[in-house]
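Reading a protein record of the kind used here takes only a little practice. The record below shows the convention in full.

——
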Amino acid sequence: MSRSSATNRRSARDGYFETVGTQIYWREVGAGAPLIALHGGPDFNHNYFLPELDTLGSACRLIYYDQRGRGKSSGSVVPHDVSLDSELRDLDALRVFLEAEEPVLLGHSFGALLAMEYAARYTSHVSRLILMNPAPGSYADRLRFIEHRRVHESDNLARMEEIAGTRKYAMGDIATEAEYYRLHFGSALMDTRNVQDVVARLRVHFTPAEIVKARAIEERLYSQTWCRPNYDVIVRLGHHAPATLVIHGADDFIPLECSANIARGIARARLEVIDDCGHFAYLERPRECAELIRGFIASI
């Protein structure tokens, strides 16, 4: 195991820890009560959070990690090494290794779904939940999201399907993937310059082969969660959840109703909607987002 450190943005410390079948990359900044950030995708890694989310290091000990098989945690992992169960075990192993007792979990997009799954399984290990621009937490809300996109983004979806059918995309060509994600996130951010910025961050630590692997992992995780007709993590979490902050961008490409359903289904949840904001609240409205998060964790 390694607790090696490296100096980069805001004197961050990073390293790897060994867990079943692989090594997981972690990075932390700041001091105080631990907050673990779960990236979305789930075929991306933590890099797209940087540098904006690092500002939370002034209020807590902020911990990132690359989920198994993605980014700097790619290693020798094969897609069948990854499941919902392995995701939750890895997160718990990270918590133990970094001695992050009862952390706040901050999940973005699909990372919010993983945070809810972890809290449902390990309720006593989590002090609070922050669900930023959460992915739908149920099969029914996933269908609502799909229909919303079909109605409002038919042209983009058609072009994305064309790109996904090309040989270059199938081989993980980085430029082709970038074209695909510029369309995918085209309506997810208010400012088109931010679309370019986010897309440029997504594959910094990926080779084409690792992109293909990450996509296969994504499909496995989808099939084990919101693609199952009876899936509903909100119901399983329900009254057992810790205090929860749900952050939604008023212009997110995921409908507000999906976030509202999460907030309604969790007993001690509060929904905050940020105006003039899409799917990346920490990037598009950094001050408002940071104030909400700092205030929430300060009340622990």
Notes: DSSP finds twelve helices and eight strands in the chain.
